[in-house]
Design a protein that fits this description.
The protein is mainly alpha-helical. The chain has a domain of 109 residues. It contains eight helices and two strands. A two-stranded antiparallel sheet has the order 1-2. Strand 1 and strand 2 form a beta hairpin. The radius of gyration is 20 Å and the shape is elongated. It starts with a helix and ends with a helix.
């Protein structure tokens, strides 16, 4: 029904940017209600819309949302929540390895990968390298992120597909 209504208005030349923005605002209001009542349905829709608009790559807002979902429990049972790094640290790490990554990956793909690998592996890294400094362990995570994104089983969208499919 909705798409037929939009298509008919387009065919009759009744749409404009102002009208479409008003329609988008109405959909946003509806989505707020859906988010409260049906969060899984809301996030399914948001992920699909993001992929339609940006492809299978994170932008800052969606990347930070994904990162904020991550956590790990240390050997003492303390839960640690991401983010571990700051936005400036993501950019610096990305800039330092960008030439080693497939060109399709952006800073926010890299940031999500860093935080995933940190959350999933930092306890193991600390066990493997008990004398290592935090900076050395973070370097290991950066190396692992480069390796992860260069794995050819999903060369363009690996981190997106890890979480959003």
């Amino acid at each position: 029904m909705y798409i037929k209504m939009i298509d008919e208005a387009r065919a009759k030349g009744l749409t404009s940017e102002k009208i479409m923005n008003a329609s988008i605002a109405d959909v946003e209001d509806l989505l707020k209600q859906i988010k409260e009542a049906h969060p899984d349905l809301y996030w399914w829709f948001i992920k699909r819309q993001h992929e339609h608009l940006f492809g299978c790559h994170y932008n800052e807002n969606f990347g930070m949302w994904r990162i904020e979902q991550m956590h790990y429990k240390d050997k003492q049972g303390v839960v640690h929540h991401a983010p571990h790094w700051t936005k400036d640290q993501y950019r610096a790490a990305y800039d330092s390895v960008k030439a080693k990554l497939p060109a399709t990956y952006n800073c926010w793909d890299f940031a999500v990968t860093l935080e995933m690998l940190y959350s999933d592996n930092i306890c193991m890294y600390r066990a493997w390298w008990p004398e290592a400094t935090d900076a050395q362990l973070e370097g290991k995570v950066v190396e692992a992120a480069v390796n992860y994104l260069n794995d050819d089983d999903d060369p363009d969208c690996k981190i997106w597909h890890r979480f959003e499919k």
